[in-house]
Amino acid sequence: GLIDAGVELRREWASVDGERRVAGPSGVVEASHVVLATGARPIVPDVSGLDRPEVWTSADALADSELPDRLLIVGGGPVGCELAQVYRRFGTSVTLIDHGDTVLGDVEPTVARGLETVLREDGIDVRLGFELRAVDDAASGGIEASFAGIGTGSVVVDRLLLAVGVQPRLSDVGLDTIGLDSERVEIGDDGAVGGLDWLWAIGDSTPTSKWTHGASYQARALADRLRGEAWPTSPSIMPRCVLTVPPVGAVGTTAEAARAAGHDVVVGRGHYEDSVRAATDEVERGEFAVVVDRPSGRLLGASGDGPRADDIVQIATALMVAGADIDLAARTVFPFPTYSQVLEQALREARNR
Fold it and tell me: Can you state the angle between helices 109-121 and 78-89, rounded to 10 degrees?
């Protein structure tokens, strides 16, 4: 498709080589604009033993053809939770540890605890408040990972999956050739790298977009800006989805984070079991929560766990992008009988409160 559109495609490693230049094995390309879409690399904690071949990244976990009998996942974010459920449902014994009080630290705690319940019911050993301290050979075979935190202990596994996060991959793209330090370079809301008017970053190359839809948004926005079309400078209202079963959807902030930022907030909740669709589909639990700024009525965030939560969150996203206050949002028509009515419940409760 790229070639048919007239794009010259070179499959090779390359890097910035001075102003408006990119160099690779096949030669130098000079351009008016250069876009860094180099992705991200996994964060590796400073823990002894993580250089072993038994230690996986998410790419390894998605590519390996052998199923481990025992798997430890370090990190309770989206990748950790998704792959914990995937491997457990394939029959692997899975332990998931995270240093926080809940998994998914950027959703409402009640929503996170709902997912924790599902993971534990799947047979996953979820341990919260734990940190990985060391990885060594196990006497019985495999590797032994030791913990500290709320409780100490260890677990013997065949594979360890690191899922503690990623960082932009900028250290080997030639920024030093234009006087920029890859460890300290600033990327503007519009994607401009180091304040330059010709070098841009999108997707995981930036610190603000860790989602495929976020990268696509940034790509479209940058392409249109370079053609002279106006776009918002920052996709600050970015929906987030965790594709577990059931899924989790979130956008904006949590009540705790909003209060820490100085907002006086109210929280409205809707429960799946109170909707007609949940009754016909025999859904027993799940909720959606919305966070509203009390003085202005502005919607600050929403999160939920339950069937179609990854779709329902887009309704909240659209309301936030449109600037709808809680009065208008709560009077929006939600079709009957759909799962979206769980969000309607949350909005109405927030308005009443």
Answer: 20
